[in-house]
Amino acid sequence: MTTIGLISDTHGMLRASVHDALAGVELILHAGDVGGDEVLDELALIAPVLAVYGNTDSPGDPRLSEAIDRNIGGLSFHVSHGHEVGSPTPARLVMKYTADVIVYGHTHRELVTRVGHQLVVNPGAAGARRFNLLPSVARLTIVDGQAQVEVIPLDVG
User: Fold this and answer.
1) What are the backbone dihedrals phi and psi of residue 127, each rounded to the nearest 5 degrees, phi first?
2) DSSP alpha helices (H): ranges in 53-108?
3) Do the beta carbons of residue 38 and residue 9 sit within 8 Å?
4) CB–CB of 24/150 below 8 Å?
């Protein structure tokens, strides 16, 4: 079993409840709009972190990649912010990326859906509340090559 924390759109804010929500994960994938090294440093206290840049991050930041493509637990993963496809939707993302699991952010809306064999996940926005949406992260668990996702709401206080 492999457990991965998924987070996006922190915009420089990391809620204390993220520590509980992602406790015990082996890796954290951040889908962009990080908002600074302090967020990455704090997440690294939980688990190793890989992060991509979003439309509000600097593409020149050495700690952020344009995309992450790797195999984890027998599944191929693609992580990007999603803004590169315009307004990201599962249909647009699966047309562009062939990975088994596609993780994105940008919309601030949590979403877990399957398109064919592909799992498309937006963990929601973990930073300051915007667009009247509640903050959230997600835990992705891989067992025997099958991925399951749990979206976890974060404290708003």
Assistant:
1) -85, -150
2) 90-96
3) no
4) no
Q: Do residues 71 and 77 touch, judged by C-beta distance below 8 A?
A: yes
Q: Classify burial at 64, counting beta carbons within 10 Å of its beta carbon; exposed 0-12, middle 13-18, buried 19 or more.
A: buried
How many angstroms separate the CA atoms of 16 and 105, rounded?
Answer: 20
- Looking from the CA of 22 toward its CB, the CA atoms found within 13 Å total 29
pLDDT tens string for the chain (157 positions)? 999 999 999 999 999 999 999 999 999 999 999 999 999 999 999 999 999 999 999 888 899 999 999 999 999 999 999 999 999 999 999 999 999 999 999 999 999 999 999 999 999 999 987 777 899 999 999 999 999 999 999 987 6
Whole-prediction pTM value?
0.95
Query: The domain that contains 26 carries what CATH number?
Result: 3.60.21.10
With vertex at residue 137, the alpha carbon angle to CA 87 and CA 124, rounded to the nearest 5 degrees, is 20
Q: Which residue has the tokens 């997600």?
A: 138
Contact (Cβ atoms closer than 8 angstroms) between residue 30 and residue 38: no
Number of domains in the chain: 1
Nearest to 79 by CA among 120, 8, 11, 31: 31
Q: How many residues in the chain?
A: 157
Domain residues for 126?
2-153
